[in-house]
Amino acid sequence: MQIVAARSENNVIGKGIEIPWKVKGEQKLFREITLGGTLIMGRVTFDSIGRPLPGRTTIIVTRNQQFNVENCYTVHSIDAAISMAKDLGKPIFIVGGGELYRQCLPDADMVHLTTIKNHVEGDVFFPTFPNDNFELVKEQHYSSNMDYVYQVFKRISSPS
After folding, report:
1. For the whole prediction, is pTM greater than 0.90?
2. Which of 1, 3, 14 has its CA nearest to residue 116?
């Protein structure tokens, strides 16, 4: 299981259902990482995207028993989402929001982390990262309307 996230320098990943930046090229990078995989996301993250993304399977985690979206799977726990994703046999990507990141980070094998070189206001945060369980295996800097750095971290110790 892999985590894909974009955060500001102060760990903000969202403000309500909005992503508090528009960075040229960052969404293309997200597409390149996740294409052909299964995306697991919370309902608020899905609402911020607004539709299933082409070329990927979408599993939405929500407590709302009536929530249903055409061309997406809906489950009511992260464990159910991961189980379903494993059955689909494609790479699994946790793509938000903050609570799913917090729950899944201890079991993630890899973290794709984009850090926007800016401090922004928000109310949803990425967990404290990196930690001693991961090593940096790739880093690439991008110049854009807001500069950013893309890093890939791989787990070096067994998940807890």
Report:
1. yes
2. 14
Token readout for 97 is 């929001």
pLDDT, tens digit (0-9, with 9 covering 90-100), for 37-58 = 999 999 999 998 999 999 999 9
Query: Which domains can be identified in the chain, with CATH numbers?
Result: 2-155 (3.40.430.10)
- At residue 142, the pLDDT reads 94
Neighbouring C-beta atoms of residue 128, cutoff 10 Å: 9
3-state secondary structure of 100: helix
Long-range contacts of 20-24, Cβ-Cβ distance < 8 Å, separation of 24 or more: 20/120, 20/121, 20/122, 21/116, 21/118, 21/120, 21/146, 22/145, 23/116, 23/144, 23/145, 23/146, 23/148, 24/144, 24/145
Is the bond into 130 cis (omega within 30 degrees of 0)? yes
Whole-angstrom distance, CA of residue 34 vs CA of residue 40: 11
Three-state secondary structure call for residue 92: strand
Tens-digit pLDDT profile for residues 77-111: 999 999 999 999 999 999 999 999 999 999 999 99
